[in-house]
Structure formats: structure tokens, C-alpha cells
Amino acid sequence: MFTQKPIIMAPMAGLSDRPFRRLCRSFGADLAVSEMISAKGLVYGDRKSRILLAPDESDQPHWVQLFGSEPEIIRDAAQIALEAGADLIDINMGCPVKKVVKTGAGAALLRDPERAEAIMRALNRAPTIPYTIKIRSGWDNKQVILDLFIEMAATHNAKALTCHPRTATMMFSGRADWHQLADAARNAALPIIGSGDLNDPQTAIKALTIPGLNGIMLGRGSLGRPWFFQEIKELLLERIGWSPDPELKRKTILKHGKLLCEEYGEKTGLLLYRKHLAWYSKGLTNAATFRKRLFTLTSFTELESTIHELFPDPA
């Protein structure tokens, strides 16, 4: 799976759902990871967790991310996910959001390497579970544990490790330390994937050239821009400056709305769509006026008409 350098859609809570994964895959994302799913929720039969587990037809292979802090629960949840059609399990050990951290999951595991290793050990004891790990470089600048986690992941036969080279306390402020990640990746005994601040094709391609790095993962840079994956691949092919024309953007944006309404029903779908439309309209003429109008529109038909105004038919 990681023999070449894939360009991967990152797991983003509330964002990397089936509709958005399908769009990103259609524009060249080599792999896409589900939004994170509670391991405990799966084990105890939570309906929402099971819904999040469902694959899209484009999810080939189907890469599912779990979060939790109890080794046996995570192992059992991984088995449930595999039985439901997952091909690969990612364990979130990097989410810095408070409601995740306070449960001992996500980035809290960066402060508890013994528990993190116990999770890896439990997964490794079940040889039918192919798994990966996603981390940040440490909890804070006083506790940088990237090399330690790479060593543990390799020891316990993880298939790959993804690192966003910020500390948990940084959240999304400051700059990702790609030099630190490059140093760690150079001698790593398992595939390393890099994520963080990859917001333009040139920067993404530069990351792909880092020795020892086996792929990149795009998160916030793809919001309002599912065609970002194709922009990178076109530049790799030396097709300089490729960008979707207004008609392709409009069709993609409308398709996203239709997929959301099909997935969640029109009422919930429109609420989610508004969030994405704010990203889609960023930087466009009349974007501020458009965003204000979003909250006055109550049907997909009204939104469709407004989107046509934002991206008019070519003359």
C-alpha cells in the first residue's frame, strides 16, 4: 500500500465523511481516511459510530480511524471495523481537542507512551489487524517523542506512522516543523507519512521529495478545494498552473451539496453544506455577501441558484 508515495486525504472530524472522501478521491486522492470513530462506541454498539464506519464506494482500500485509550477496547473495535469492511485501521494518537484529550485518547497518549505502546502491543497480538498510527511530534516542546513513537510503532509491526510535526499544545498555530520530521523519517524502520501546512502544490511536492518520507496527507488545505490533489499531480507531470475552471468548480460544489443531502437528508445536509460553502467561496469576488446570504437560504434549490450567481455560466 505504501510502496509509492501516495497523496492521502486526512481524517478530519465532521469533515472527512463519505461525500467529501468521494469528491477528493475523484480528484486523485490515492487514499482517504475516515473521520475518527470512537472505539468504545463501536464496541458498545453506538449507532452513530456504526454509521461513521460505513464505506463509500470510492473507499478502496477502506482506511478507518479509531480513537480511544483502552488497549483491549481498541483491539476489539478494530476487529469490528474489519468485519464491517475496513481494510486498514488508523489509531489517532494526535488529536489535541480537549474533549478527546480529557478521555485519555488522542494527543493525551503522547504524554503516556506506556499506554500508547500497550495499544500497539494489543493490536500486534491480533495479527489479522493491519494498523497505522497518527501522532503529533509531542505534547509540548519539552516532550518531543517522535523518535520514540516511530521506534515503538516499528517494533509492534504498524504498517505506517503519520506525523503532523506540531506539538499538541500548538493546536494549529505556529508552523509545522518539517525539518524535525525529515530527520526522524530518514532512519525510520517503517513508512512515514507527513502532514501539516501543505497548503499549495509547490509545498506539497517539496514534502514528497524528503528522503525517507513515504507519502503526504492533506487536511485543512483541501477544505473548499477537493481538486487540490489533482493540482499537485498535474504539477508533478509538469502541467504548470493547472486549476479547475469556474464551470468545473461549480459542478463540483453542486455535487458536494447533492451528496450531503443524499447522505443526511436535506435539513442536516444543508447545515453541513453551508460550512463547506464558506470554504468554497473564500477569496472569490462577492464572497462576503455570499456567506451572509447562506444563512437566509432554506432549500438546496435556493442554494443552487446562488451558486450559479457565484460561478456564472461561461459566455
Provide a descriptive summary of the structure in words:
The protein is an alpha/beta fold and 315 residues long. It folds into two domains: 7-236, TIM Barrel (Alpha-Beta Barrel), CATH 3.20.20; 246-310, Non-ribosomal Peptide Synthetase Peptidyl Carrier Protein, Chain A, CATH 1.10.1200. It has 14 helices and nine strands. It is globular, with a radius of gyration of 20 Å. The mean pLDDT is 92.
Radius of gyration: 20 Å
Which of globular, elongated, flat, extended, rod-shaped describes the shape? globular
CATH fourth-tier homologous superfamily of the largest domain: Aldolase class I
> What is the level 1 CATH name of the largest domain?
Alpha Beta
**Count the strands?**
9
Structural class: alpha/beta
Order of strands side by side in the largest beta sheet? 2-1-9-8-7-6-5-4-3
- Give the H and E element order: EHEEHHEHEHHEHEHEHEHHHHH
Number of domains: 2
CATH topology of the largest domain: TIM Barrel
Name the CATH architecture of the largest domain: Alpha-Beta Barrel
| CA(first)-CA(last) distance | 45 Å
Low-confidence stretches at least 5 residues in length (pLDDT < 50)?
none
Helix content range:
40-55%
The biggest beta sheet is recorded as: 9 strands, parallel
Provide mean pLDDT, rounded: 92
The proportion of strand residues reads 5-15%
